[in-house]
TrEMBL record:
The keyword Signal does not apply. InterPro entries: Acyl_Trfase/lysoPLipase (IPR016035), PNPLA_dom (IPR002641). PROSITE patterns: PNPLA. Signal peptide: none annotated. Keywords: Hydrolase, Lipid metabolism. Pfam families: Patatin. This is Alpha/beta hydrolase.
Length: 318
């Protein structure tokens, strides 16, 4: 890994299947970061956590080329490629579309629908591609470090897990959207999707005691702006979900900007420094229902979009 004086942390926002865009972006970013920057940290929430942990495991295990291939393999495995999984995927996506169109659909708790993809499916996915028993050794080789965000359902406290504290259940908890998955027990408490907490964790880049980055690169999945006013119930529902997904991100960035302001005014000790914030955004306006879509063609298109946008992002830096 290069040491040119510019250190970088990458934060991966969650967004269900849209996080395949993040996988593609990381495929393009990792070789450049590995060669030209000091890569100090990764973080992620929900699908962003899956991408961040996969990238970290591959990068520290065998390098950026392996990380790129592993991200591809994981998301190809996420895709619904068998006839039963494809049919189930279509049913879940269309159910969400019906809900957005105000077509009456019975609400069913994930605790009452054992046939849908759940903990077992996700844990098997992780087990096929990532050996969490190696995390102790990989943590000794860090940086970069990796952090995953969840929310403690019982206490309402945001919780993060870093490096060798991350387990398959931690990554599962970060992706446990409560209307689709059961809560995950960690350390005697129940946890839900990190979309309700730090989406993604960012302030840990500055407060963890580890090397602080000069720049934070944010892969943002939820659209920050919309040109049109949402008027239909479907549009209102989608925009509300987007705003909710960005709420915690903007709170995290407020913290960084405030620290920058205090640094610039000389209010903080020398251990603090100004941190540049850069965005790589997924700007395509898709319906929220597509976040549940695991159609292989859709996943492949998102990965390719991520590669393209990341290439343009890097070109703007040069």
């Amino acid at each position: 890994m290069s040491s040119n004086g510019t250190s970088v942390a990458i934060a991966c926002q969650g967004g269900g299947s849209h996080s395949a865009f993040t996988a593609g972006a990381l495929q393009r970013l990792l070789p450049a970061v590995d060669a030209e920057y000091d890569f100090v940290s990764l973080s992620g929430t929900s699908g962003g956590a899956l991408c961040a942990v996969t990238a970290w495991y591959g990068l520290l295990g065998e390098g950026s080329d392996y990380a790129r291939d592993l991200l591809e393999d994981v998301w190809c495995d996420v895709a619904a490629t068998t006839p039963p999984s494809f049919l189930l995927n279509e049913a879940l996506v269309w159910r969400r579309r019906f809900e957005n169109s105000m077509v009456p659909v019975a609400d069913v708790s994930p605790y009452a629908t054992p046939g849908r993809p759940g903990h077992g499916w996700y844990l098997s996915l992780l087990d096929r591609h990532i050996d969490f028993d190696e995390f102790d050794t990989l943590a000794d080789e860090a940086p970069p470090h990796v952090t995953v965000g969840t929310v403690n359902v019982n206490s309402g406290v945001f919780e993060t897990f870093t490096d060798d504290a991350i387990t398959p259940k931690t990554v599962l908890a970060s992706a446990a959207f409560p209307l689709l998955y059961k809560a995950v027990e960690l350390n005697g408490h129940w946890h839900w999707d990190g979309l309700f907490s730090q989406n993604p964790p960012i302030r840990e880049f500055l407060t963890s005691g580890r090397p602080k980055p000069d720049e934070i690169w944010i892969i943002q999945i939820e659209p920050q702006t919309r040109e049109e006013r949402p008027t239909s119930l479907a549009e209102i529902s989608d925009r509300r979900q987007e705003l909710s997904g960005n709420l915690s991100l903007n709170q995290e960035l407020f913290f960084v900007r405030k620290v920058n302001e205090w640094v610039d005014k000389g209010y903080l000790p020398d251990e603090f420094k100004h941190v540049e914030i850069r965005w790589l955004r997924f700007d395509e306006e898709l319906q929220a229902a597509s976040k549940r879509d695991r159609d292989p063609r859709f996943i492949e298109d998102l990965i390719e979009q991520g590669r393209t946008e990341a290439g343009e992002f890097l070109n703007h830096l040069s």
